[in-house]
Write a structure and sequence with these properties.
about 35% helix, Phosphoenolpyruvate Carboxykinase, domain 3, alpha+beta
Length: about 325
């Protein structure tokens, strides 16, 4: 395991041949001379296998110290993917976020053998649930709750759908939690479950929940999708389920797919069949345990006639 390396040994490897982070469908070789990057890898990827030096990786990324005076004063970290990555340098204190963002950029722009949903994906009973959601609607918090309640984590950020096989592909990496979600999950899991908090990031305060060991061990196991559920946390709604209109679901999923336009007609046909063949639902809740119950019921049983009949009603408190 990567955790078998000392911090010094890991940093030596990062400076020479790099370290491969194998998340299932994607493997990334990371190079860096920044000690904080080595610390982030040990903290968040320590339970991942230590891959051989000749392992073939999909992507190569670098995380380097800032240039000029930034090497000594208010130190920064700069991400690159062969060419400079399209983000501004970060303060070195939030280097773990630069690591995750650079890896996300590679998946979103270069994994074009898959249709890439902006969604969390988890599996249970051999069935995968796709959880799309915009920032602030509770997607990552629900993903973390499911991943620590018997569901197998595939991804927090991107769902990888294989157009040829119709299967969801794992991309098992830490779950990014922001602001109030950090307190919610620490109260649920305990203080030591998450990484140290990163303050003053572009997304506010951020902490990472490492992927569960079982999800890492089973990162090569695919699963067929069984449902698409749009989660919505609302403090005034205890429990509500509606079918999501199929046409709207198709438009929403296509609009949120990172490479939909690039894949063209094949992506449209796959998404049309995807939406036609599976329950597409909206849920609203104010307790995570309630949301977990609703997700499991929809995945196992589908939507009731009443829930389908009320598809056009808004979820309001």
């Amino acid at each position: 395991m990567i955790a078998d390396l000392s911090r010094r040994s890991l940093l030596r490897r990062l400076r020479s041949d790099g370290i491969v982070l194998d998340s299932g469908a994607v493997a990334t070789r990371v190079f860096s001379r920044v000690p904080e990057v080595a610390g982030a890898i040990l903290s968040q990827y320590g339970h991942y296998p230590l891959m051989d030096g000749d392992t073939v990786a999909n992507y190569r990324i670098g995380l380097a110290p800032g240039g000029g005076l930034r090497r000594f004063y208010r130190k920064q970290v700069v991400g690159s993917v062969g060419v400079p990555a399209p983000f501004t340098p970060f303060p070195v204190a939030i280097a773990p976020m630069m690591l995750e963002m650079t890896m996300n950029w590679c998946v979103a722009t270069r994994s074009n053998r898959y249709l890439i949903f902006h969604s969390a994906v988890l599996e249970k009973h051999g069935k995968a649930v796709v959880l799309p959601g915009d920032s602030g609607q509770g997607k990552s918090t629900l993903c973390a709750a499911l991943a620590t309640s018997g569901w197998r984590l595939f991804s927090d950020e991107f769902g990888l759908f294989d157009l040829q096989t119709g299967m969801m592909m794992p991309n098992v990496r830490p779950i990014s939690l922001k602001n109030a979600s950090i307190d919610i999950m620490e109260e649920r899991l305990g203080k030591g479950a998450l990484s140290q908090r990163l303050y003053d990031t572009p997304k506010g305060t951020v902490a990472y929940l490492p992927a569960p060991e079982e999800a890492v061990a089973r990162r090569m196991e695919q699963a067929p999708p069984a449902a698409v559920i749009f989660p919505f946390y609302h403090p005034n709604i205890e429990r509500a389920v509606r079918a999501y209109p199929k046409a709207r679901g198709l438009i929403t999923l296509c609009g949120g797919a990172a490479n939909y336009e690039m894949l063209g007609a094949a992506a449209f046909r796959a998404m049309r069949d995807f939406v036609d063949s599976h329950p597409v639902a909206r849920i609203a809740y104010n307790r995570l345990d309630t949301a977990i119950e609703m997700v499991e019921r929809i995945v196992l049983e589908g939507l009731s006639e009443d829930e389908v009949a009320t598809a056009d009603r808004e979820l309001t408190g």
